[in-house]
Amino acid sequence: MRYFTSDLHLAHPFVAATRGFWKPGMRPDRDIIEAPDGINQLRRELSEYRFNEMVDTEAHDRLIIRRINAVCGKNDDLYIAGDLSAGGHKSLRRALYLLDDLTVPHSRIHLILGNHDGFHIRNTNAYDFASVCIGSISPNLFLTLENGMPAIVSHTPRRAYIEQGIELKDVASNSMDKALLRYAPDVPDGIVHLYGHTHGKSPDEFHDGTSVNIGLDAWRLRPVSEHQIIETLTRMQTTDCA
């Protein structure tokens, strides 16, 4: 079986905080957490060390690994649509180390690069990626779903939606940033698009019948199977395009 996910953000304290992972007694007041830019503001007010000390990043990372292992086995393929870590050498090394705890073999892990991965292989991350022998690394990936539908897997939403400046609710502040245009794919009509990046809670953010958010936040911090994606597309095409 093929499984898909995005935005693991292993070894990334800020994202762990947005997902509610605080150390005992360190959780900020609710009004801070629930404010539109509350956690970001808190991070700006504190030193990096102080903020990171408040966050239980280890608990976040262990949960992500456990939930992947709960559904993905040694004979499955796992497609990660970007943002494996926070970016930077230390975070990337930690994230790649954690991949050793996955049941899925490294050779069956396929990484589509996101903004926190640098969107491309460069001098600062080439050695790290090469050291773990991931099955494949690419900027975008083209495949055919088991029902015969062609699909593109990328980190960002499709180029057309970013160009149009479509506004999404309850998503990451840089979800539709114009700076992403150089990396966003052109997706022809009728092609399924599997993407992440937004940290939105809904798999069906654009209501177009073909775009599916495969990010962890849209699937209760779990990968989504190919069967689930096809079921979601069927439901979307029935309701969104009626």
UniProtKB/TrEMBL annotation:
Signal peptide: none annotated. InterPro entries: Calcineurin-like_PHP, Metallo-depent_PP-like. Residues 4-127 form the Calcineurin-like phosphoesterase domain. Pfam families: Metallophos. GO terms for molecular function: hydrolase activity. SUPFAM superfamilies: Metallo-dependent phosphatases. It comes from the Bacteria. Gene3D superfamilies: 3.60.21.10. This is Calcineurin-like phosphoesterase domain-containing protein. The lineage of its organism: Bacteria, Bacillati, Actinomycetota, Coriobacteriia, Coriobacteriales.
